[in-house]
C-alpha cells in the first residue's frame, strides 16, 4: 500500500509544483488587487468586442477543423485499417507523421504553400481563417484515422453480415449498422481534435497574421505585449472551462469505446483491396485518402523542402550552410539550437515517461472499493489538465511563481532542469493516453492469480504488467521526445536568450525581414521536421499494436 501511495503521490506532487502552482499563481495575480480578490476583471474583459471576436474565431476554427478532419479521416481509417494492400505499413507511418510535427514547422510549411509564390497562393488563404483551418486538419487527420481505425478493426462483423444477408447494399449496411457502431470512436476522436484545434498556438501565430487570433494566441499577446495579467487570467479561465468540457466528453466517449471493444468476441478480418473481397466503397476511400495525402499532407512538406533549397543565387544548400552561422541577434546558430533542443528533449522525455508511467500504472488498477475507484478516476482526470491549459500560461506562470516556492531558499528559475520539466508537463498527458489503454487491457484475473500463487506486488508488476507495458514504451518515448522537440509555447518564456531551442530560433528568423532569413527558417524547419520524423520512425519500429489513444 505504501508503494502504491508513493506511485500516486509523486506524479501528483510533480503536477502540483510545476503545473498547478504556476497556473494558480499567474491567474491569482490577475484577480488579486491590493491583497484582496477582485473578480471585476471578468465583466471588464468579457465586455470587450475584441474578446468576443477572439472567442468566436477559436470556437469556429475548432468546430470547422474538427468536422473536416472527421469527414476526411473516416475514409482513411477504412483504407488503412479495414483493407489490405502493398505498402500499407509505409502509408500508415506517413500519415502518422503530421501529428507529431512541431507546430512552428507546420506553420512555416503552410505559409510556404499559401503565400508569395507558393503553389496555392491563388487561393488567397494566407493569414485567413481557411488557411489556419487547413493546417489544423493537417495536424489532426492522424488522430481520427488512428482512433477510428483501431476501433473499427475490433467491431463485431455479425451485424453488417446480417444486414447484407437481408439484402442491404454495402452502402446501406455501412450507414445503418457500421456507422452507428463507430459513434463512440468518432465522438472520442472528435472531442480530442476539438481540444487540439481550440488550443493551437504555433500554427495560429505563424499563419494567422495581424488580424487573426485565438484564445491561446491572445493570452500570449496580453501577457508579452500588453502585460495585462487580468485579461490573460480571464481568458485562461474561459479556456480551461471549455477544454475541461471537451475532456469530459472525450472521457465518456473513451469509456464507451472501451466497453464496446470488451464485448467483441473476436477481431474482424480485414478485406482485400483488390480481388473478390473488394467493394465500391474502397474506391471512394482510395480517392479521398489519396487526395488528402497528396494535397493536404504532402504538398506543404514538399514545398517547404523545395523552398529551403532556393537561394538568391538559385538552387543549392546555402540556407543549410547558413544554419552554421552564429550571430545577428539570434543567440546561437541553427546547429547549436538543434543540439540544445535534443539535449532538453532527452531530459524532458525521461521525466515525462517516469511520471506518466506511474500515473498509467495507478490508473490502470481496478480496486474493489468504490472510493478507491473514484480516487483512481480522479487522478487520471487531473493528470489530463495540462491539455486544457495554455502552454503559454504554464510557461509564464513558472517564470513568475517559482522564484522561491514555499519559502525555499533556492530560486528554481535558475535551474537548467526547469525547461525540460516544463516540456515534460506538456508531454505527460499524451504519454499517459498512450500507455494507459495497454495496461487497462490486461485481464485483472492475471494479477489475482499471481497474487494467489504467492507473488509479491513487485513481482506481479515485473512479470505481468511490464511485459505488456513494454510494447507501448517505444511509442511513448518517441511521442514524448517529439512533443519536447517541437514545444514552443512554454519554451518561449523559459529558454535562455543565448541558448534558444530550434522552434524558438525558427520563430525569431521568421520575424526578421529579408529573404535570406526566411530561407534559413525554412531550412531549420526541415531539420526539425527530419529530427521528429526519425524519432517517430524509430518509435513505430519499437512499438507493437498498442491500441493507444494517439
What does this structure look like?
This protein has helices spanning 2-31, 40-46, 49-82, 88-100, 103-114, 129-152, 158-165, 170-181, 183-198, 202-207, 215-224, 229-262, 280-308, 318-321, 334-363, 370-382, 391-401, 418-440, 444-452, 457-486, 491-494, 502-510, 515-542, and strands at residues 32-33, 36-37, 83-84, 271-272, 310-311, 314-315. It is an all-alpha fold. It has one domain: MetI-like fold (Orthogonal Bundle). Strands 1-2 form a two-stranded antiparallel ribbon. Strands 3-4 form a two-stranded parallel ribbon. Strands 5-6 form a two-stranded antiparallel sheet. A hairpin with a 2-residue loop joins strand 5 and strand 6 (314-315). Helix 2 (40-46) packs across helix 12. It is globular, with a radius of gyration of 24 Å. Mean pLDDT is 82; it is low at 262-269.
